[in-house]
Predict the structure.
Amino acid sequence: MNARLTIDIEGLQGRIDKLATISEQPAPVVTRVLFSEADLRARALVRGWFGEAGLSFRQDAVGNLFARWEGQDLALPAVATGSHIDAIPNAGRYDGVVGVLGALEAIRALKRCGFRPVRSIELIVFTAEEPTRFGIGCLGSRLLAGSMPLERAAALRDGDGRTLHDLRSAAGLGAEDMDRVRLPRNSYAGFVELHIEQGPLLEGEGVPIGVVEKIAAPSTLRLQLTGVGGHAGAMLMAERHDALLAGGEIALAVEQAALSSGSPDAVGTTGVFRIEPGAVNSVPCRAWLEIDFRDTLLARRDAALARIESAVAEVCRKRGVSFNLERLNADAPALCDAYLVETVLSASAEAGLAARKMISRAYHDTLFMAQVCPVTMIFIPCRGGVSHRPDEYSSPEQIRCGVEVLALSLARLAS
Ligand SMILES: [Zn+2]
């Protein structure tokens, strides 16, 4: 580098604020669901910024965006960074966006100080990190990694019955070849995602930089229970096959599976529990549960899933309730690359910033990029650990620190 690296935090904050104005709901709420009108306008805006920064651009068949700063040796695999710009309903402006616009500012800062990369640097904006439209998260990175079969992607339908093909056709991507989305292994020399922590640790400890060593293995179960309904007065207790009570026992078994796993990282949540008919004088005849279970070790997570599944069978047998249980996803954890983790730690030291290693308990596109190339993530603090809410906040200084560490890391990896 010919000059000292300086981050234009005013320019970056201006772009973050401008992007936040593109939302399906009024400010301060940010809602951008995959291929909604707001999502398409947001994509066009960032694409324009990529062009202004002199980056070449391509888009694949599912709408993953790739902006590239060409290096001096085109034969070498590029270094990649990036995140997502879709937002769940009623979200804020920093989740994902800091990793996309922060990476853009990192590249702009490296260009300003005269750095010339040997490896190309590629900024990826992943399609649908959030599961809002199709009920499955990280759609773009799953497909890039080949960890979702194309037949399964073709069968996805949103709440209005529209398929992925319908939506990507409407977005002008219908002629693109789905077979070409998957990236060959080692397409990149490494991938580093900058992201807000979405948890309270960094803020609590006053540490500006977190370097992710592993990402927990997430899984989702969907359960339908069918019992026998009846009049709450007339149906005596001995005759009951109550779907809610079966579901209640199963929710407790989920809690127990996490508590008895011996792992401080195991977390089990029954986040959806709906019943029918839902009347005060009627025995619940049907229940739907959705269960999220995570741990950092795959074997331990899978053992807990097996315990939950056998509890479902046992509770339903005992209560005379029938069930249909689906594993919607059971992804592997990602172990980050030791060399990349060291690179980010030494970039933090170069920037004069304290850093600590940590585990990501939320999952990110990096989880799937780990199947393509070596990965790590840079976390920055967010106020109160709050995310997925309009009051999500990281200060300009916190963002500046993250972008500086990302820029210095990319410079090392691309040299
Ligand atoms: Zn995110």
Observations:
- The first strand starts at residue 30 and ends at 32.
- The chain has twelve helices and 17 strands.
- The mean pLDDT is 95.
- The radius of gyration is 23 Å.
